[in-house]
Amino acid sequence: MMPSTSAMAAAAAAESANTAANDGGSHTAEMRTEWMRMSDEGRYGTPGAAGLDYQKFELEQQTPNANNHMDQTMEPSLTDNEKNEKNNNLEDELISLTSEELYNTLKEYDALQDKYHTVLLLPKESRREVTAGGRDGSAYVLRCLKIWYELPSDVLFSAMSLVDRFLDRMAVKPKHMACMSVASFHLAIKQLNLKPIPAEDLVTISQCGCTAGDLERMAGVIGNKLGVQMGHAPITSVSYLRIYYALFRNLAKEIGGQFFEFYQQLIKLEELENRLEILLCDVKTTVITPSTLALVLICLHLDFHIKESYTRGSPELKHVFEYILFLQQYMRIPDRVFTCGFSIVSGILSHYNGQNKQPYKQRLVWRLSSRTLRVLRPTNRFSTDLPTIDEGISNVIDDGCRSRTESVSSEEEEDWPTSPIIPIFEQC
């Protein structure tokens, strides 16, 4: 029988304090001070790792916009209901697990995470190799496909795990990146035993520039090179995130009172998964292990919501910080690695949330094929320069003397542009 969550967190804090006293100031003590310092800097707007833009964005998401009520539908669609039902079932399964079962699951994940994770060091610019921008662009395309087909987050994380590992093992040319990424998405759906999507539809929607046969053949190559086992879901950062979410919920339940209600109302698993998908689309997060990435994200999320409702000296905040320290030690995450991951995550989210404040300046460009261009009605001949009308007494007299019967039709004088396209009824 394992002790309670709060008891283990208190024991970890006491052990950390004893170590700091013996060593004269250890890295763990520095980490705790650094963590609280970074949280305060992010809160009060000082440039730090916490990222003020992330906190502002979270606050904006909580504020209801009354102007958009008319644009929203009164009732969710059937697909929305099915999606909410799946999310509720997943949360119910996590809630039903005890803390001891969750810790055992973490141990199983920790033994397998290196198999599904790799560190990518891609160049920024290259004509022969896939660049970091090419990889991130493919990740956003797969995220759009996941949203389009209303698939769970596991498909996106499994697909990007295949993409990153295949890029690490094989020399992929940039022209093959689109086909390879969509093929990984297609393979991930089969790996998770979900309802298959026809390859023709994926090729059409993604516009990857290959045929359905090419997509199936590429998926087979990826599966053989990486040894993909159907029916076995890979261990990704979203797997850790769900366990951390359940553990912090158990902690909030042990603290009790208003803190448990606060956790249930403000900390949503779906929002955390959306943030994690954004982080997945940046290649810099591959330098962080999935366990560290998920822990840093939920800590940053908790930091904002707790500090908006509780003061620094409150016992609830103390319990949370002690438990964060315990989880860091339990997962054997070094202090410097945790601090580095905190900076990377907050920087990516701050940059992403700041994009909606910048005006979109790119002009809309229509790309047409030569065949479509030949049948279009030319519009450049419709814009003509009209002569300037002189305003004077003579013009007024001339206009007054002209009778209405002497007016000449403009169609007889003007050279109106005509379309070279022959109407269909005249071609017969």
Keywords summarizing the entry:
single chain; 428 residues; mainly alpha; Cyclin A, domain 1; 2 domains
For the largest beta-sheet, the strand count, sense and barrel status come to:
none
Measured on Cα atoms, how large is the radius of gyration?
30 Å
Low-confidence stretches: 24-58, 64-81, 403-428
Characterize the overall form.
Answer: globular
Question: Into how many domains do the coordinates divide?
Answer: 2
User: What share of the residues lie within helices?
Assistant: 55-70%
Mean pLDDT, to the nearest integer, reads 76
Describe the protein's architecture and organization.
The chain is an all-alpha fold and 428 residues long. It has 2 domains: 213 residues, no CATH class; 109 residues, Cyclin-like (Cyclin A, domain 1, Orthogonal Bundle), CATH 1.10.472. It is 64% helix and 0% strand. Helix 11 packs parallel to helix 14. The longest helix is centred in the C-terminal third of the chain and has 20 residues. It starts with a helix and ends in a 15-residue tail after the last helix. This is Putative cyclin b.
Chart the SSEs and their pairings.
Blueprint: H1 5-23, H2 27-44, H3 52-62, H4 78-96, H5 99-116, H6 132-148, H7 153-169, H8 177-191, H9 199-206, H10 212-226, H11 237-255, H12 258-266, H13 269-280, H14 290-309, H15 315-330, H16 335-354, H17 370-375, H18 393-401, H19 410-413
Helix pairs in contact: 1-15, 3-16, 5-11, 6-7, 6-8, 7-8, 7-13, 8-10, 9-10, 11-12, 11-13, 11-14, 14-15, 14-16
